[in-house]
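Thread: Newbie trying to understand structure tokens

Hi all, I'm a second-year student working on a class project, and my supervisor (Dr. K.) asked me to get a predicted structure for one chain before our next meeting. I've only ever worked with sequences, so writing a 3D structure as a token string is new to me. If someone could post the tokens and maybe explain what I'm looking at, I'd be very grateful. Here's the chain:
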Amino acid sequence: MIYHSESRFKGVGGLDLYYQSWYPEGKVRGILAVVHGLGGHSDRYRNIVEHLLPKQYAIYGLDMRGHGRSSGQRGYINAWAEFREDLRAFLKLIQQQQPGVPVFVLGHSLGGVVVLDYVLRYPQESSALQGAIALAPSIGEVGVPPLRLFLGKILSRVWPRFSLTTGLDTTAASRDEKVLASLAEDQLRHNRATARISTEFFATRDWIHAHAADWQIPLLILHGGADRVALPAGSEMFFQRVTYPDKLRIEYPGTYHEIHADINSQEVLADLASWLERHLPVEAVQLESAMSND
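---
Reply by user tm_fold:
Sure, no problem. This is what the structure looks like when written as tokens:
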């Protein structure tokens, strides 16, 4: 039996934000909070949900402001702090709903940037997390045409809500034709980005690299070697700058940007599950052992 629920909470400025959660039957050993990428939403991670539910994890998925079922102009923020504080509120909500349950946070693409920024900005709060996972984080060069980047920089101050399509190549998402077809049919997805989100993104990316040595919780980075949307060199650079010893980065040769939904997704999901298992508290591991012996 799988328990699924949908609800809303208030983000920065009282904005109405959507989230959903999936719970397994029986005792929950850990919780994974998922933050999607630019233009995405929380429904795009069902294979992660399906892989982890049988292992007694609960999964929470947030639709960021301006995305999915949440309110806000598509692809717009006033400042990056809105993404950060929305995630902060989301994690507090999870911890209130499930006190004492170990929580991990996972960000994909732009969501990876949101997660890395949050952990570095709030080291004391982040120390309550079991660890952070970044899937194909956009912390290096990105596959957006240079002209669009230039326009974003110029217009951010004078017309911050100016919106353009990102120009990202959809076929760079996955080598799985079924995944590409589902992306094309997805009515909740969008490909909009505003001038302001562009400049806020690049400023945040640079800040994250500058403060990488301050990282203080277990870190997992999974990146596709053939990612043309968020080039893998960026996450490698960040990984090398992190001095905290409990860190792991795996690069998958030939894998595209939707690393959790490419043709080798089972390998990626197995690596994710294995890492989560190693970072659960001892009591949660003992619980799994006891359940297996029943």
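A couple of things are worth pointing out once you decode it. The first helix runs from residue 46 to 52. The CA atoms of residues 180 and 232 lie 21 Å apart. Feel free to ask follow-ups in this thread.
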